[in-house]
Design a protein that fits this description.
Elements: E1 5-6, E2 10-15, E3 21-22, H1 33-37, E4 44-48, E5 60-62, E6 73-75, E7 83-87, H2 97-110, E8 115-119, H3 123-135, E9 139-143, H4 149-157, E10 161-164, H5 168-180, E11 183-185, H6 198-201, H7 205-214, E12 222-226, H8 231-245, E13 254-259, H9 264-268, H10 293-301, E14 305-308, H11 311-323, H12 330-339, E15 350-354
Parallel strand pairs: 7-15, 8-9, 8-11, 9-10, 12-13, 12-15, 13-14
Antiparallel strand pairs: 1-5, 2-3, 2-4, 6-7
Helix pairs in contact: 2-3, 3-4, 7-8, 8-10, 11-12
The chain binds zinc ion.
Zinc ion (ZN) binds next to helix 1.
Length: 362
Amino acid sequence: MQNIIWNPNMSHYECIQCSQLYSLEEDMFEGCPACALDHQPASVKPVYHEPWSKDNLLPFRQHITMGEGGTSLLPLNIEHGSVYIKLESQNPTGSHKDRMSAYVVSMARSRKYKGMVIASSGNAGLSVASYAAFAGLPCVLIATPQLNEELAKVIQATGAVIVWTDTSMERWERMKDYVNDGYFPASNYINPPVGTMPVGVQAYKMIAREIYEDFSGQIPSQVIVPSSRGDLLWGIYEGFQELNQTGKTSSIPQMIAVEPFPRLKRVLEGESYTGWFEGATNLVSINGQTVTKQLEQAVRKSRGKAVVADEKQSRHAQEQLHRLGIHLELSSTAALAAYYQKLNKYPSSTIVIGTSFSFTPI
Ligand SMILES: [Zn+2]
């Protein structure tokens, strides 16, 4: 078994909304308790003693790993502008989720949880089930019938148990039962939601650092991220923010959230992020009727925006990428579809995050 060594420079948690501080002894699965009492749920984030070296900025010195991260940044040969794709489909189970899975199974093992539980309709379920199997932990996946049949077979082959529910809300209720029984939650389970537990989300900061290194110490003008509750976008934003705060860069990219129907867009126009946003889509990985504080905050603070890309636009972008030899699922290609909407009349350089490989037939 691989060693798990925590980073002693991780000091405490801080609420991203009210700045209340919390001990690392707390697991903080449900975000900031003070903000929850005000019915304004918000995530917390780890704070480090000395945030100026690479090693100090991550929760672990050593953790369980299947070789995730270090994905390629490829220039795209398309008609407009300077655009690159960060190919997260190169991770061991085919999506960016592997970065977080490595951290959450490490924490669950280190703190002796019974196993992992996750509500997912696809990539996250496969990723957590695979990493749990690798780490020797039981795994329960709570899923709706939207879960792809072939994917379900692979997930069950790892030994994970799938518990079926009719609706997304029911998934969260069932998941809470498992959390109360000593399982480690690898996704949100409260409503209105918060981001996934804070140690896990830290893994996505490395995407910002890898882009910074691939750009030889420069940063792109914008980063487009397929988003639902915004773990990925928040993590990348936090990575760029740390590069900026430690004096390595002079600014941070605009963070652009791509969504299949208006949710964050409505929040940025004035609605409360705790609302319920009706909409239907086949882009299952970025589906959902809710918005989180972390997503709103990262987009606002980076002067970013929310862009809606529907299934038709995403399918067009998917076809373009197939012709370049890149095979991503529709929820990923939504990011390129957003780029095609001429954000800021094609800024100097853009990264689109290609979150996951296409498991479904083309
Ligand atoms: Zn708070």
